[in-house]
Amino acid sequence: MPEGTVCNKKTIDTKEQLDALLADKSGKVYYEEMKSLDVNVDMLKTALKNTLRSRLKTWLEMCAHCGLCADSCFLYLVNKRDPKQVPSYKIQSTLGALVKKVQKGEEITNEFMHYCMDTAWSKCTCCNRCGSYCPYGIDMGIMFGYLRGLLFAQGFVPWELKIGSGMHRVFRAQMDVTNEDWVETCEWMEEEQQDEWPDLKIPVDKEGADIMYTVNAREPKHYPEDIAEAAILFHIAGENWTMPSTGWEQTSLSMFAGDWGACKMQVETVYEAIDRLKPKRAMGTECGHAHRATVVEGPYWVGRKNGQPPVEYIHYVQWVAEALREGKIKIDPDKRIQEPVTYQDSCNYIRNHGMADIVREIMGYMVAPGYFVEMTPNREHNYCCGGGGGFNGMGKYRPQRNVALKCKRDQILATGCKLVVSPCHNCWDAIRDLEEEYEIGIRWSFLKPLLIKMAIIPEHLKPKDE
Amino acid sequence: MFYNKILFATTASPTCDNAAKVAFDMAAKYEAELIVFHVLGIPSRGFSTQVQDVKTGELEEMYDENYTALVKEEIKGYYNGLSDGVDKLKIEVTAGIPYTEILRLARKEGVDLIIMGSHSTDEDVTSTRYRGTAGSTMRKVAKRARCPVAIISRPCTTCWKLFSNIVFATDFSKAADSAFQYAYKSAQAVGARLYLFHSYDLSASYAGGHAPTQGEIEAKVKEAQDKMQSKYIRKMSDYDNYEVAIWEGTPYVEILKYARDKQADLIVLAHHTREYADPEEAVMGSTVEQVVLRSPCPVTSVNHPDMVENK
Ligand code: SF4
Ligand code: SF4
């Protein structure tokens, strides 16, 4: 049975397909069917011919097997320096071997595809750290991202990510949140704030606002107070802002899945919202991969020549730094954090988008002098949280992910801090899970709730009763 | 006071048995629709489809319809003995953060009253490790719901309709105005005596750095008396079955002592509204929790006029 009923090369484009996949609890049937899934070699050949850009080809060929990248990979370190976890080995034995097999016309077996899948999703989080340690700048994160695309097209992709990319195709969101659910949740949150913030509005579809704000679907799905908190901070800062009724979801599980078609669809919806509402700037929530998907990679997915989104699109930390710097939000010095506190540098906007200084500027405002403790290593050199690239959500690789968390656990323990500021949903989840797995007695937080606690509330925004 | 739709939020475990009795009893007496609602699992592991089962702690599939149906059946069976006389009964289960889902459903269904057990903190997964922030389901629901929230932690021997003593404890906040409306209307409806109570918060003034003088205390008590008059007594047209008391001390302790003294069947109070800024330190917020944990009778928290005004 080459193509399975749930495990096959088809993308998930309807609610029915999605439900069928979800009904297969933990992907039991899915992974069973995958064992006999055929490899379409012609398709692979064409894909390599059309998409294996010269940079990747050169990288594969020029690797000197010097092993300098080994120590840069946190997965190599936490897995007791297993030679099979050396970045160059991981990519050469998968993508490298695949290219050679295709060139030489060798058989590409189902077992080999399984090995590639396991390696691409459980031995690399696409954190791109190795790229800055290789003397040639060879970046395994980028190459594994590419390999994931090839594997997805062949149907070799972890169950949860097939679902995730399907969610984007069906709902234009990583979870089953419809646009109606979304708008409803915004109304609910606006209503809930009326007592404490009498004039607070959550403006949906306002044209020409200064900021169009986009979120992570799990905010409306599970944590609507994140939306309320964003609104409160905009309210305090006096911003003219809005959120779109469609195109509000900024994340991309399809990027983790390697489903480039879905990536394009998702980011197009966001860009269309920008075209429709014509904001001066767009801005995302405190999510790392959402920024990567919509701001860094998105323009290429939709073929924008200048490599930029339709308007300037900033990350939440950029706005926070600006608001604090310009005094739009003022911090009560007595309410600053007065305990040792550390910061989790998210790979996606710190290493890959240069915001290390900006977040330290923010910490300078929020933490009383002497309490901020850096992790080692930090900034561009920080290690992945342990849950990047989709690692957090895949049941099949949970044991490997739990091992991966040890790196962050030990980094946090070494700081001696009990509080970790973590403005990225993925890092936040990983740290939550590591506390649950290893119980080291820490707390962790996004920026928003901390800022609300310490901001000075302008007199005219306070409720008038009492 | 009447009720059309009651939401009973349950952990479907013995912790909520006392609350269940009141919920089913009230639904039957007021011929109200009863929605029994259980949040069976908490989202976990990033975007994964798994949730952590609130009872077993095991990971379960969030979208598993068979499992959901099974849990519904279990709940139905669990409350079988109570459901006589409740004609409109609906059982709903979902996965999510309990307080979020309770509030979402209450809003969607436009319920007049939420009834819940005290969801003690140690079994409440959302309280500590889960979100990295403290604050129990009960506190968040009581604080944020638009309708009254009745929290029942001990057996309630008197049927709601036969209540004879209702204590209304106030901090004179705007939210307390709605709590007063509710207490007053409830007292009127069942012909209960209404006890209007305020405790001048001594601990707060000690924390402020100095012990208040006798003169200062007297002035505060006088001020409270005036507020009782203007905010509440004036609004009770010809209802004279009430009394007023103003004590000094730590509010939750005084409320509990007073309620015991008056053999209260029900305590009604509001959450302090300024809680968002710092939930850990809000005085009245924690007062509600302290009262709930120790009160022998049901406690109803009311913060908004929405479901109180036209009843
Ligand atoms: S450091 Fe670069 S050249 Fe050396 S083994 Fe790693 S990828 Fe190859
Ligand atoms: S991208 Fe990160 S996880 Fe992947 S091989 Fe390089 S260092 Fe390791």
Helices, strands, pairings?
The complex is a heterodimer of chains A (466) and B (311).
Chain A (H helix, E strand, L loop, with lengths): L14 H9 L4 H7 L6 H11 L2 H9 L11 H5 L8 H18 L5 H13 L17 H14 L5 H13 L7 H14 L18 E4 L3 H4 L2 H14 L3 E2 L10 H5 L2 H18 L3 E4 L3 H14 L11 E2 L1 H10 L15 E3 L3 H5 L4 H11 L31 H18 L3 E3 L3 H14 L4 E3 L1 H8 L12
Parallel strand pairs in A: 1-2, 1-3, 3-4, 5-6, 6-7
Helix pairs in contact in A: 1-9, 6-7, 6-8, 7-8, 9-14, 10-12, 12-21, 14-15, 16-18, 19-20
Chain B lengths: L4 E5 L7 H13 L3 E11 L6 E4 L5 E3 L3 H14 L10 E7 L2 H12 L3 E4 L9 H5 L6 H8 L4 E3 L13 E5 L4 H17 L2 E9 H6 L6 H19 L9 E8 L1 H11 L4 E4 L13 H12 L4 E3 L10
Parallel strand pairs in B: 1-2, 1-6, 2-5, 6-7, 8-9, 8-11, 9-10, 11-12
Antiparallel strand pairs in B: 2-3, 3-4, 7-12
Structural class of chain B: alpha/beta
The gyration radius over C-alpha positions of chain A equals: 23 Å
Q: Which spans of chain B have pLDDT < 50 for at least 5 consecutive residues? A: 120-135, 273-284
Distance between the termini of chain A: 72 Å
> Unreliable segments of chain A (pLDDT under 50, ≥5 consecutive)?
none
Features:
heterodimer, A: 466 residues, mainly alpha, Fumarate Reductase Iron-sulfur Protein, Chain B, domain 2, Rossmann fold, 3 domains, 50% helix, B: 311 residues, alpha/beta, 12-stranded mixed sheet, 10 helices, 12 strands, binds iron/sulfur cluster
